[in-house]
Amino acid sequence: PSRARGVAVVGSAVLALQVWWLVPLFTSEAGGRSADLVVATANLRFGEGEAGAVVEMVRDDDVDLLALEELTPTAVRALREAGLDDLLPYYAVDAQPGVQGTGVWSRSPLTAEPVEGLTSRAWRVRTRGVTFVAAHPVAPGVRDPSLWQEEQDRLTRVLQRIEGPAVLLGDLNATRDHAAVRA
C-alpha cells in the first residue's frame, strides 16, 4: 500500500508538470479576438503532399500567408492546378527536387528576398507590416548536430536583424525544447 501511494504521488507530480509545460501550447493570448492574419505552413514530404488538401485548408481556414517546405516543381504545378494562385496570388517560390524547395504564397502583395546560408531554400518576405522568415533547416542528426546548430544560429541572426514584428515559420526540425528555438 505505501509503495502504491509513492508511485501515485510521483505519477501525479509528473502529470502536473506535463500539464504545466503543455498548457501554453493550447491557450491563446488573443483572448477570443479573431486573428488579424492567418498563417499556415506545411511540409510536402518530397513534394508528394496532396495539393488539393493544401488548397482546401487555405480556403477553409481563410489563410492569408502560406509557407510550403520540400516544395518540388511537380508540386508547384499541382498546387497551381488545384487553384492556390487564385486564393493567394502573390508568391515567392524556389522549387527544387527533393527536400530543398520552399515557397511562400500570400493574399496581399509582398516583398521577398532569399535567405542565404541554409541547405534548403528559405525566404524573408514582408506583407501587411510583418516580416516572415520561411525556412527548413537541416535535421539535427544523431551523430553530428553541428550543421543543424549552424543553421539554427543563422536563423537567429536573420531574425535579430529584423525591425518590427517578425514570424519564423516552416519545418524547423526543432521544438521549443531546443535552446536554439527558445533563443
Report on the structure:
The protein has helices at residues 2-26, 51-60, 73-81, 84-87, 146-160, 179-182, and strands spanning 39-43, 65-69, 90-94, 102-106, 111-114, 123-127, 130-135, 166-170. The protein has 183 residues and is α/β, with parallel strands linked by helices. 37% of the residues lie in helices and 22% in strands. The strands form 2 sheets. The protein has a 4-stranded mixed β-sheet. Strands 5-6-7-8 form a 4-stranded mixed β-sheet, covered by helices on one side. The protein is globular and about 65 Å long.
Radius of gyration from CA coordinates? 19 Å
Structural class comes to alpha/beta
Q: How many individual helices?
A: 6
User: How much of the residues is beta strand, in percent?
Assistant: 15-25%
**What would the principal axes of the Cα set say about the shape?**
globular
Helix content: 25-40%
- Indicate the low-confidence ranges by residue numbers: none
Secondary-structure element order, N to C: HEHEHHEEEEEHEH
Number of strands: 8
Distance between the first and last residues' Cα: 46 Å
Question: What summary fits the major beta sheet?
Answer: 4 strands, mixed
Mean of pLDDT: 88
Strand order in the largest sheet? 1-2-4-3
